[in-house]
Design goal:
Helix content is about 25%, strand content about 40%. It is α+β, with helices and mostly antiparallel strands. A 5-stranded antiparallel beta sheet has the order 3-2-1-4-5.
Length: about 120
């Protein structure tokens, strides 16, 4: 007669799988997966017109003009949506329009966990 599977073991496995998926989704949201370095954009390693996701600190906001910094590197972009507080760590998706700016920004998201 075959052994019956342990429902406790199946529940445990399901919890582990859900936790791993949640961590991967949060890491992607927080810019750990697939983010482009602001330094690479500032140094010209990313072509103008490339759509990128970058992570950094929101350091300046004047109306809808924002500055995203990562150490001594920075990018300027405009955003008309809700903006996180100054000094927040955020993830921004937009198109590289110069060595110092993003255009056509489609998302500005505060980092959840991975600062």
């Amino acid at each position: 007669m075959p052994k019956k599977g342990s429902s406790r073991g199946k529940v445990g496995l399901a919890v582990v799988v859900i936790a791993v998926v949640a961590i991967v989704v949060i890491a992607w949201h927080d810019g750990l997966i697939g983010a482009t370095s602001i330094a690479d954009i500032n140094s010209g390693n990313v072509a103008v017109g490339t759509v990128v996701t970058v992570k950094g600190e929101l350091t300046i906001r004047l109306g809808n003009v924002h500055t995203l910094s990562q150490g001594s590197n920075f990018l300027v972009f405009t955003w008309d949506g809700t903006s996180p507080p100054i000094n927040s760590i955020i993830v921004v998706t937009g198109e590289v329009s110069s060595l110092l700016s993003l255009d056509s920004v489609t998302a500005v998201r505060p980092v959840l966990i991975f600062r």
